[in-house]
Amino acid sequence: MVFIPKVKYLDYSYNDKSLNEHSSAEENINRILEPSLPSKSKWFKGLNSFTVDFKNYVDYIVSTHKKIFRNENPEQKDNIFTAKGCPAIVDLLSNAFLVKSPAELIISINSQGQYVCSYANNLIRVEHHNNEQFSSREDDLFKNKLCLKFCIDVDINTHNTPYTFLPPMYHNKPSYEVAQGIIAGKYGKAHLNIITFVDIPKEDKVIHIKCGQVIAYLLPFNKLKLRHSKLPLNLEFFKNFNTKLDYK
To answer: What phi and psi values does residue 185 have, to the nearest 5 degrees?
Structure first.
């Protein structure tokens, strides 16, 4: 008997009922969530495979041997591979989901930590976590930082598969830091929210995020496949949770 592993899914649904029609949902999800591939990173795609001008490792070794025969005493490099051969980067870019902004965002921040945000549609909004939530008596790591939450109008359910958000460092250089942590168990059914920290500037600063720009990686700890949920995901627990703690 051949063992066929059970396919695990990342289910999603829109809060906008018009977008939650099955055909529309599948057409639009790539604007927000897209399975990553190494080839979808322009940086990775533009890398050479080797740091020397050879098409493969064997050609490099043979060339070195010929130089030895000619008594040229060639320099032999221990590692000629670039980051394109790094299994850690390849695995990340092969297993993550790209979380993309479904609208153009312009965020202006002043030296007092105040911000104003404009966006092109209602598929994304920006909220603020009070700094008191992150202030510590022992080590104030988040001093002079503004905590902004990107709220995307999509609910997700990873069915108990833990996941984390990571900065999109192989796609762009964002003007913010992505807060990291492990989301597991019942919390895997949640709104698609990205918590970020921005340095409060000494002078007015503008963050411009283009529509379709990768704003974070969503990395599950198991391989997942995107699937549209025909019925809205039930997030009543989280609505009550947020109401009680008043996190806005």
So the answer is: 60, -135
